[in-house]
Structure formats: C-alpha cells, structure tokens
Amino acid sequence: MTDRPADPLADLHAREGVPSAMAAARDGIDVLLRDRGLRRSTPADTAESLLRGAHASGVLEGSGSSLDAVREGEGDAVAADAVRLSTELLSLTPLVSRAPLQAFARLHALAAQGSVDAEQLGRPRDAASAARLRDLAAVLAAPTEAPALVVAAVAHAEVATAAPFASHNGLVARALERLLLVARGVDEKSLVVPEAAHLALRPAYESNLRGYAEGGIAGVHAWLLYAAEAYAAAAEASPLAR
Fold this sequence. Notes:
Elements lengths: L7 H6 L4 H20 L5 H18 L6 H5 L5 H13 L3 H6 L1 H13 L14 H15 L6 H15 L6 H15 L10 H7 L1 H13 L1 H21 L6
Helix pairs in contact: 2-13, 3-5, 3-10, 3-11, 5-7, 5-10, 7-10, 8-9, 9-10, 9-12, 9-13, 11-13, 12-13
C-alpha cells in the first residue's frame, strides 16, 4: 500500500501511552537482569525459564499438564511439543535476524513434528498465509526506530492472529516473541518468562489478541498496551525473581 508508513513499527510505538508503558516494562526487565547479574545467572536459570515458558505456552495451547509433570517429562502431547520447541529455540537466534522466514518455518517444524504430515511442517496453509508471513519477515528485516519490545509484541500478535500454519500457531507465536527478545538484546540469556505472564493474564491476553485481529488500529494500540503489562509480569515470572 502506498500510504504505509516507512517505519510502521515506529508509527505504532508512537501511539498514546505506548512509549511510556514500553519504557517502564523495559526498565523492569533491565533492573531484574542487572541486579541479579551481580551474582551471575547460570545455564540452569535459562533452562528453568525455558521450561516455565514451555509449560505456560502449552497450557495456552490446550495442555492440561502441570508444571511438575512437565518438569518430570510426563506432560501430555501438547506440553511435549512446547518443550521440544523450547529446547531448540535459542539455536535459532542468528536465523531470526538473518532470515526470518526460515526461522518461522523452523519454529513450526519443531512444534508440529509428529502432529501433522511432513509436507505441512514449516509451510503456510495457503497463499494468503504465505503473503502474511512474507510481510512480517519484511517488517522484521527492515530498520526501525521502534524498541525491541514493540517488535516482539507485533510479531507475536501477527502469527497468533493470522494462524498461518496448519497447527501449533500459538506455540510458534509465543516462541517467536521470546526469540526476538533474545535476538534484539532485551534478554540475551532468555531469563524472563513472557509465556507465564500471558497465562497469568489469560483473559486480557486472549481478548487483546481478538482486538488485534478485529479492532483495527485501536485493537493494535490496545494490544501494545497489554503487551507492556505482560512484559513487566514476565520479569516477575523469571527464575531470578525468587
């Protein structure tokens, strides 16, 4: 479209209340990571964050497994899919920056392995879904003045609402959000738990995703304000916040 802003994410970030909300959320994350960094985080902290995130994302996708069951490797099929995705997630950090479309495909292939036919793994459902993913990849690849939290929030909502794959779209969307927080320098060791925040805020999470899909620019604006709240809660859900 000829009237699309040159920097669409920066345009969204400029909406009323979004800059201050996102700055406050980032400050909360930075305080957690800086303060706890005095004693240094460990790979075990990252693993615990990823596990908590996998459990929460699985519940949002329909899993009935408890965190303890997931921790013991006894979760249901959806939980197992979420754990498999989380286990490989950080290895995709370079790919999501260099080749976002390939990263989207790999995320779905990991999440849906064994659940859909092999020819559907990593492939969009139809031409419209493929176009939506190409548009998102182009936005992620373009320079932007928007902060990383806005980038991650928009990418999450785009995948969650477009549902471009045959299955597991929620798992992919939440994994992409976490991956972008890592790749864009917000949380390089992946210690905050956005998935747990979305689960704790589930009614608002689900209603704001519907608003993003159906409410035009007002819905997108509301989603970004919600996302800032969720990122603050994600820091509180970190294993470092104990």
